[in-house]
Amino acid sequence: MTNRSSRPWYLAPYYIWILLFVIAPIALVVYFSFLDLAGNFTLENYANFFSSTYFRMTLSSFWYAFLITFISVLIAYPTAYWLTKTKHKQLWLLLIIIPSWINLLLKAYAFIGIFGLYGPANQLIQFFGAGPLQILFTDFSFVFVAVYIFIPFMVLPIFNSLDKINSALIDASRDLGASQWTTFRRVIFPLAINGVKSGVQAVFIPALSLFVITRLIAGNKVITLGTAIEQQFLVTQNWGMGSTIAVFLILFMIIIMLLTGPKEKGGALNGKAK
Amino acid sequence: MAKLSKPAKIYLAFVFFILYAPIFYLIFYSFNSGGTMSGFEDFTWEHYAAVFNDTRLLIIVLNTVIVALLSALISTAIGVLGAIGIIFLRNRKMRNAVLSLNTVLIVSPDVIIGASFLILFTMVGVKLGFASVLVSHIAFSIPIVVIMVLPKLQEMSSSLIDAATDLGASQRDILTRVIIPYIKPGIFAGFFLALTYSLDDFAVTFFVTGNGFATLSVEIYSMARAGITLTINALSALIFVVTLGLVLGYYFFNQRSGANAGTGGTRP
Prior knowledge:
Chain A: InterPro entries: MetI-like, MetI-like_sf. By secondary structure, chain A is mainly α. Helices cover 70% and strands 0% of the residues of chain A. In chain B, helix 1 packs across helix 12, helix 2 crosses helix 12 and helix 4 crosses helix 6. Chain B is globular, with a radius of gyration of 22 Å.
């Protein structure tokens, strides 16, 4: 302990944590993915995963995650862009972030009321002369609520990268005769693409693994990979199949992270989207 | 700087409206004497009274707070020591490997953390309940603390430590008198984030909590699945106020102390 080059004792709890809660859980998930219900070794779970039911579920989960991410970018980009032009931009940004600190369940619960048969959404529809619609428990409500929840996580990285752009570059582009649109397309957008990538990363993977909103808002109409894992673990008690889906979710996660490239520094801290 | 055009202002106003309307909608109906979230009848405090008269609910709130405080304290201690250890790792490859292992739990979806911890606890034979929830919260908070503390450690000049060594400080003195005071803002940031992560967590807790133990979010989930009760509205209004207080308090604390530790979610 007096010798500085010796392995510091205070690292022990941290290394134990890595071993027990980072390496062991992943190893256990992989191990369990090869077990059937009776605990025997099997490849059946993997065969099942490629069967039509699970394959279709995976595809639809990806489709919804794509839709959610795409709409989030569409809404968040202009928001972030104009926020950088406001006077007290850090304060406005904080105001965008605050809703992301409110528990996800409460936000989902609010939408149970808003989209309900007598809720304000239906009152608005009736005001325009249409009959009350079943909004809750549809895929529309699922996508809407998911986008609502993810918007702050998308605005934040895009805002950060837009905010970092040197305004002299934009002035230069305008001086050289580029129109506002050309400046955006050729200068601003390429310079801020990393923010979009971080945002996509922060939204797409959680969107694949959502299960709270599917249960509360989509009424089991939408099955994401996350819902399927929860179902297998806590309802069907088929841990083998659940682990297999989890293995694939981890694989998809790695692929997406590789595709969206090295994160901007601190990108992972955008918050914990569920 | 150009002023915002009118459409831009309208757009931003619309986004803010969409972001905040559901939250205020929830809070508004917490004062409704009719039992639903549509058609406001009369102003009442009865749902708040219901929250404070429900002993079971209050015990759950207490549980949640205890788990949050304990897990934040313990994970901060382990995380800070871990971060110091990482900084002193001479081997670059080793350091990068440890850093990547550190980020695994940050990027993993909650369902996977929850499911894998469930397997782990069952294999080891830990009874699901308070212990498993607390340990899980500690486990997923540690990497955040490390991430918040590391930049502070990196900006600390190593000559400070050399000076302390030359002046005869023991390793313990260096840790408690030099390093820890220097990285204090990072430690606070890490503790605060660990606290909010624990309070906010639903998915992981949902997997590793047994039948006997519940945190607030698990309880809200089962209440919400049963349908609308305005008790949840009253509860969420209270949670909103507490959250807002925490975030703003932390924000201004950071501004005042001028520390550049980042405001967690807002400025990583």
